Hints:
The structure is a homotetramer of 233-residue chains. With 233 residues, chain A is an alpha/beta fold. Chain A is built from nine helices and eight strands. Chain A has a single domain, classed as Aldolase class I (TIM Barrel). Chain A has an eight-stranded parallel barrel with strand order 1-2-3-4-5-6-7-8, surrounded by seven helices. In chain A, helix 1 runs parallel beside helix 9 and helix 7 packs parallel to helix 9 (212-232). The mean pLDDT of chain A is 94.
Amino acid sequence: MKKREIRAPFFCVNPKAYLYGEEALKLAKAADELAKTFDIDIFFTVQYVDAYRIAKETTNLIITVQHMDALTVGAGMGYILPEGISAAGVQATFLNHAEHPIKVNQLVKTMQRAEEEGIIVIACADSIAEARAIATLKPDVMVCEPTELIGTGKVSDVSYMEQTNQAVKAVSPKTLVLQAAGISTIADVRQAIESGADGTGGTSGIVCATDPIHTLQEMVEEVTKVRDELKER
Amino acid sequence: MKKREIRAPFFCVNPKAYLYGEEALKLAKAADELAKTFDIDIFFTVQYVDAYRIAKETTNLIITVQHMDALTVGAGMGYILPEGISAAGVQATFLNHAEHPIKVNQLVKTMQRAEEEGIIVIACADSIAEARAIATLKPDVMVCEPTELIGTGKVSDVSYMEQTNQAVKAVSPKTLVLQAAGISTIADVRQAIESGADGTGGTSGIVCATDPIHTLQEMVEEVTKVRDELKER
Amino acid sequence: MKKREIRAPFFCVNPKAYLYGEEALKLAKAADELAKTFDIDIFFTVQYVDAYRIAKETTNLIITVQHMDALTVGAGMGYILPEGISAAGVQATFLNHAEHPIKVNQLVKTMQRAEEEGIIVIACADSIAEARAIATLKPDVMVCEPTELIGTGKVSDVSYMEQTNQAVKAVSPKTLVLQAAGISTIADVRQAIESGADGTGGTSGIVCATDPIHTLQEMVEEVTKVRDELKER
Amino acid sequence: MKKREIRAPFFCVNPKAYLYGEEALKLAKAADELAKTFDIDIFFTVQYVDAYRIAKETTNLIITVQHMDALTVGAGMGYILPEGISAAGVQATFLNHAEHPIKVNQLVKTMQRAEEEGIIVIACADSIAEARAIATLKPDVMVCEPTELIGTGKVSDVSYMEQTNQAVKAVSPKTLVLQAAGISTIADVRQAIESGADGTGGTSGIVCATDPIHTLQEMVEEVTKVRDELKER
């Protein structure tokens, strides 16, 4: 399968294990609408069991799983088969998230498998040293979140974001950088994109908001505003 | 959700990572028909991403995942949320398969989560000592396969099967025992049930057969023949 | 090698990774003296690299490692070879501590290896369900600490201790029970032994005390006092 | 502690879990003599429990453990504390060997801990992609063995060795490269060093030889011969 091209700036809705089934589908449909309205690429992460259904009922989203394994068709119990998720409509996967760290050799092999199947890789690092190492593997997207900020509603400071953007690009210029640590307001969204990130997004800042769909809409709209402002400069 | 009752002797089709998407669905539909025709409970294991679709398009199968995690609704990237699979129509999970061994405390916690969500647990052990330990946790079903036979097409000998059946029942009388190591012929199926197993099934014996659906039908039919013969005794 | 017999009530000094080198040796020598003076069996856990030296320079202690692996003589990088530790004077090992949980099959295999080498196994469980499962493997000693109390200075309540003692003994009457969660005063020591534990001990309650050797002496002495009182009853 | 300087070409005796206790000590003493006689740096890997004793009874060897953890002084059961091994005389550690692969974030943190304690890091990669990623972390030494050759007595071919040497040096010029896959003859030793490796060594090629000490001597001598020949060119 041919890997989908990503247009920056993009957005990433990552409900982790907060949402599943109907609720996940509802937010996905809203995100799908926003992707169309604002002409923006949106990664939407799903529980594996929801991937097929959400892929079927949406048009624009990049259906994304939160981890994938390197196994091949054959034996192996309970692992995430690349061919299987691809057939279900999945187009991207997170790898090595701080909440799902993997072994060095496993990361290398799984990225090779993703390449074979045309699956976009969003690789995560929780320090600049780790980001540099992983960047040599040329993932499509990288996330560099200081582990201690995940889930806190605190954003990485501008200097950290600039530093990680540069560290990644110095090693792998084509890798897009996602800055999403603690994003919960449109000011956070603006700051992330203005500091040079190729994408931003959130988890608790969206799913734990009073009105998740409204918050999501504001955030996505803000990304496109900054995008348009940056074009004019 | 209320846990589904299992009627012995049952059958288990475990395609592991051999099948996914359309091919998995096709075999599942055939198994579903057999479950109805022969009035037998059939566990059918799926890739997570296929669970929803197969659950929707079948009526009788016990949709089974090959592993599950203990996490709860909230954070956590890339794990198998019990609530999520349950909402997608999954009714059972394998745990601690030799190809996916887990930690002692993780097994205990995941079995508690399965109980909360009404998910049937098929717990695996690869030695009699391990079987006895796990039986204290009173899983719904236990598999006791000598690891060295998995995927070989060699069956456990009758004495091993009887020994494990007894070891499990001595600790947990209500736990059903699945003997499925290397089952590839109807003679293997007969031997497993006659030696006292509550269920049998297969992986490569079915999916690698020249005509998987035909082989599956013969095996399921044989289980019901032995069932009827045993009733008459 | 023949496995050493343990005499209850025993004591366990578990410095974890708080002490190493000279400081560990100093506390070990003090514990060794106490073992002699009070005629009591004392498990003393060591960093692997300190095992040989502490074994050489003490006489009475049961030199104990904090984890062991199941590998056999041959390949394998960086694991704890049973034959190797045994040759260095180690007589016991913790297994499956809450800070080092292991897989079910690994626990079974490692306990078999320990048996082969005559190494005493102190197996840990962090719930009653886990304790019952592990007790079927008949470890020499079991620890049942509610994970949430470890390192807190809070002791398990008497009812929890009695419940775990009974749960273990019901399954494996010869297994000795060590109650050591949050032990930091001689009152805690007394309570543990009076509630039926075969042994008690501590980590932070000793190594973080103002005068560790003095605290250790008081605790060991208290165990022997309770021992003598119980004999008289 | 100040990290020891390594002089290339060096040799590495890696008995893995083949040797322990007296036998390990005996080979270590022989290697120690050779290090002196041939004025060459020799890494000698040990079972943790043998580290102190071998360090005490040798003068020239670089006492090396086969894995190390990132934990700090305090809690933590059964892990390898950097401060502890350093105090016992250990000067180097392997990390991420194919027989002990570790997580990306664990590798990064453990290398930081090694730096803090002045412990030489020998980092392993089992593919060129992995080698490049790890080289960004600037380990002191790197091993690039195609996993499939380990323990086979087959050496990496010259082209693979040259390719990995270059891949590592391109990213981290000061990192020394150890080529040790399947080294079992003096011809293998010569080829490794002539192909540009900074060091070579072996496991089964030495410990499973009819006369390990004699084989070791021949290999070490050959390294120094090639060293002297290369100087003259």
